Amino acid sequence: MLDLGRTFLQSVERSPHAPAIVDGDLMLTYAQWYERIRCVAAGLREIGLVPGDRLLAVLQNRWEMATLHWACQFAGIVMVPLNWRAKPEELDYCVRDAAVKALVFEPVSADAVLASPAAQAVPCIALDGAAGGSMSFASLLDSVALHDAPVAEASAVSLMLYTSGTTGKPKGVPRRHRQERAAALAHVAQNLYRHGERTLGVMPLYHTMGVRSLLAMALVDGLFVCVRRWNAGQALKEIATHRITCLYLVPTLYHDLLADPGFDPSAIRTATKLGFAGASMSDGLLRRLALAFEPELFVNHYGSSEVYTFSIDQRATRKPGSAGRAGINTRLRVVRLDARSPDDLAATGEEGQIIADLRGDEAFEGYWNRDDANAKSLRDGWYFTGDTGYFDAEGDLFVSGRVDDMIISGGENISPVDIESVLSLHPAVDEVAVAGVPDPRWGQKVVAFVKSRGNVDAQALDTYCRGSDLVNFKRPRDYVFVEEIPKSPVGKILRRKLSAGEYVPASHSRNPDLNLNPNPNQAADATPVDTIKE
């Protein structure tokens, strides 16, 4: 298999004059971008980086970040992208854990870099005159471009992504060139991308979705339009200006596009291929997007940093909630929740843990310096995802949540996603998340946290649930109205924060006399909530 450097050369050779990347007023063709990539690769070599060394970048989605990614592929350097919002202690941990040899940053991440002893101990390459740099990114561009062949082979490590670390320290996920290329090829095939596609480069390049969009565009000689910081109004302008043909976003960002006052269906109809991943999409949002975009393809992609594709459904609106079937490089199973072996299969319709075959072309081989995590997640050649789900009678996979998010109430296992899907269809519900809250009688109580877009109270929502096909024991017993649903930087619902009372109550209470107090440190009258009687 080709390495990623030679993969990029394919596009340069096929379509040297095709537009490759846009960032604000900057537009580069493949030939022009290649010259800059070669200069940066030479500059990294000049400061002493050799194949196999790790380079950490804390940058937004700007052309320099994308250029660094490709330069590392040519130079055989391992790219280690990190959230530009990272705190000093997070940065410190990752610099030490990955044993990075250099770091690239910009003003928005400068405070964290300056406050990290580990970061200060390595060469720090600054963009835009950021304080604390030992050299500038411009000096890399001034280097004499490399003219030799790419250094890396397909078996070399391409990058190391760090997981979000919601339940502990982040875990490094090393991925080889061949695994990254296989994932990008699968992305192209599963989203039916054609030559010359144009995408919005908004998913962060420290996340597998952002990296996949970047690599996929090179495979089809396409255009990657950088979006440094999410703004729905600006994104809509970019879609119209650059005639974006395909979108690959988390559900939250699609929600924001539809909610923006400037949303005009006629201006975004060039985007005929929609894809989403990173979180489940509610039935309500699926329907609204289908009506607004009228896409020719609507793909639900389910995957992870460790194994890019688990499953896909190319007709997401056909069976709302379905994650489809295993991707072209993947084998999947659902095993019992207490399974010790990948052969302990759950029955059809039975909720269990989703596992993936590690022999798949996209699968990683284990976490970086984390034998404990490997022992927990890698068993007998299978990756135990920590996600819950089930296969229906037709063989389609449904993802119901995380093992850690499962609500156990009165001895019953209850999935939050099923309840969220029902409530999302209520016309007055803008967003909803369901979580378990400690309860002395039931162990945990099912609570729906609702961001509304109209006048609605708990009784109306409960009546709505009673009229649906939701079984009685899954009905929420409390409704908390909030200003926003807490999410991670890439749009995943943070149910642990809701369970712990870490949210902003809605400014108007629908029933101020009834209050839930899941957090003993929170004032009892701080949360507007409605409670449903049995």
CATH class of the largest domain: Alpha Beta
Oligomer: single chain
CATH architecture of the largest domain: 3-Layer(aba) Sandwich
Number of helices: 16
Question: Percent helix among the residues?
Answer: 25-40%
Question: Taking Cα atoms only, what radius of gyration do you get, to the nearest Å?
Answer: 24 Å
* E-strand count: 27
Features:
alpha/beta, five-stranded parallel β-sheet, ten-stranded mixed β-sheet, EC 6.2.1.33, GMP Synthetase, Chain A, domain 3, disordered C terminus, AMP-bd_C, 534 residues, 4-chlorobenzoate-CoA ligase activity, globular, Rossmann fold, 28% helix
What would you say this structure looks like, in words?
- By secondary structure, this protein is of the alpha/beta class.
- It folds into three domains: 197 residues, Rossmann fold (3-Layer(aba) Sandwich), CATH 3.40.50; 174 residues, Rossmann fold (3-Layer(aba) Sandwich), CATH 3.40.50.12780; 126 residues, 2-Layer Sandwich (GMP Synthetase, Chain A, domain 3).
- The protein is built from 16 helices and 27 strands.
- Strands 12, 13, 14, 15, 16, 17, 18, 19, 20 and 21 form a ten-stranded mixed beta sheet that branches. Strands 4-3-5-6-7 form a five-stranded parallel beta sheet. A four-stranded mixed beta sheet has the order 2-1-11-10, with helices on both faces.
- Strand 12, helix 11 and strand 13 form a beta-alpha-beta unit.
- Helix 8 crosses helix 9.
- The N and C termini lie far apart (60 Å).
- The relative contact order is 0.08.
- The C terminus is likely disordered.
